[in-house]
Amino acid sequence: MKKTFPLLMLSLTLALGACGAPPAGPGAADLGQPPTSAAQPLPVTGDVTPLFGGHARPELFRDRVAALASDLWQSLPDQAAAPQDGGGPAGNIKTVRVYYSDPLPTTYPYRDGGSFHAIMLANLLGQYDNVRVIRAPISQYRSGDAAQDLRTFYIGTVYDEKIPAAFLNDVKAGAPVTWIGYNIWEMGDMSALGLQYRSLHTALTPAQIAATYSTVNYKGYNYKKYPAQQEIIELKADPAKTQTLAVARDAVGDAIPYLVRSKNFYYVADNPFQYIHPTDRYLVMADSLKTMLGDTGTATCKKQAILRLEDISAINDPQGMRDTLDAISALKVPFAMTVIPESYYGGVSYPWKGNRGGLQQLYRAVTMGGLVIQHGTTHNYHGLRDPEGESGDEWEFWDKENDHALALLNPASAQARVQQGRDVLLSLGINAQMWTTPHYEADVGLYPAINKIYPRAIERRMYTADGVREGQFFPYPVRDEYGTLVVPENLGNIQVGYLSDSVLDAAEANKNLSCAYASVFVHPYLLEKDYVGPDKLTKASLTALIKGIQAKGYTFVNPLNVTTRTLK
């Protein structure tokens, strides 16, 4: 057996342009559609200084007109957030164990990420509201543990680490175990399982990466691994004793088992949590968990789609939002929208009340049934850091430029900041019911505080363990590491280099899953008439995208109605 230098195990954050500022130039004035059929008085010109904190009318607002008191909806009282979905029927809790490679010494120039990938697996297991996950390093395994619980997973990320003999014996005795990645060779003779270790295939150079086993065929769909340094383990599987559920193929078409089952034992030939992306073999692992846990309830699952409008702010030209809503209204599909409560550009506040047309389009969206999601409070560093940047461009709960937590944010101050933004929306008569973190990134210690206001979120998320901090997306709703009910965002968004065809490819890849979701978001500024980027949308192209997702068998739903399932 050839000993190789273990690869750095990372997952791609791949926020896919989760947020973005609209074009810098202003659009033409647009009064939009009023929220009711009652006639709305036209605004009068005059001094609007109080709207802008003592500043004159800002340049970006030069074509906007201020709202009148009669335009505004009545403010709303705050109500407690909807309770989190519970932990399944009493007495029906099922325990799953996840063991991972013991962390490498801190003196190593890289980290293996084993404990981090255990979190990723536990998050996926959070699709069930009655599954309890116990995580521990493999060195802590005790004889009989794997036989006591519904299933035990081992994620091998440290090459040739010592596996406890008790674990090997329990696997051979038929305990329900899923083995992922390295060290399967320590099992020795696996003839009783119908398996035999053959080799470890390593691809380090561009030529090797192009030639290696980078395509995984599962249920007739070819999932593509990210073209990076990678390894895969080859086992020989006796078809009389095993079932190969997925195969990996190389550039010339040669195939080896990728996911193989032998009675109660499953083997996954690489680490599917390394370098994940929207059409990755990560989806194979995510879908196969139901089979490994004996889930027989997926036959009732329907393919569900989620449409989200992103970065709705007071600075936007109302025309882009108006055209977006026109397309959605014609199709009569449910949708959601992330709304930025306060906008700052150059340190100047751009309030909703200063953009009558934009506010009316926001009201129109709510009247159409659009679910409001709070998208940060300022979506920049206003009051937190200097320079603070522009709303929509910058992060808010993580210092991205310096890659560390913001000194002025702790759980209490973060909760207060979120509440501040919520109060702004309530003062406009708007009740936000979910949360999306700006650019999907926060200091992980802040998530429990955010949960106290919004126990539901729709986003991709950041996780950290043993010196590794990376991102994860979910192909279905989960209760994650922080106790948040996370609604999936798995298709990404229209942006340069990732257009409608790419979104539809991701929808196709996810269609293969037993409980499939297709969650996409778009920025209405892409429909503004002055926007000329290669990712520009029109009412026709947005309509085609939505219909394209529907044509794959998905039905658009309100994300507030999406939740976890109970494992029978």
TrEMBL record:
Signal peptide positions (record): 1-20
UniProt KW keywords: Signal
Pfam families: DUF2334 (PF10096)
Keyword match Signal: yes
Keyword Ubl conjugation applies: no
Annotated protein name in UniProt: DUF2334 domain-containing protein
